[in-house]
Amino acid sequence: MTTNQEWALVCMGLCVGFFSFGILFYALKGKAAILLSGFNTFSKEERKEYDTIRIVKDRRNMLLTWGLVFLVGSIMSYFIHFYTAIIAMIVWLILILKNISLNKYKAYEKYKLLE
User: Fold this and answer.
1) What's this model's pTM, rounded to 2 decimal places?
2) Residues 6+ apart with CB under 8 A from 91
3) I want to staple 14 with a disulfide (CB 3.0 to 4.6 A). Which of 55, 57, 63, 70 is the partner?
4) How far, in Å, are 9, 35, 40, 45, 113 from residue 66 at the CA level?
């Protein structure tokens, strides 16, 4: 197995994982919100204050985007060069860092329902 194939396999594994979770979020709809880090620590009363459908939809789209990044990285790594897989991982890291918030209330404030 060549280095290109190894990196393509790594990217494909991550792609399948992210697509699987994206499909799971699609299937569970609002119930998938309990799987989200930070949101699952809110009390039941606090969870009712947030639009769980929108939260899950945004997270699902994020997971599918990550899967697409790794799908492209996998294909390009297999046919072109393994550096493209590394570029895909850097793009993924940038996408993750763009969405990280250490404060759970700040992370979900845009999903708060109007009273």
Assistant:
1) 0.90
2) 69, 73
3) 70
4) 16, 18, 22, 32, 27
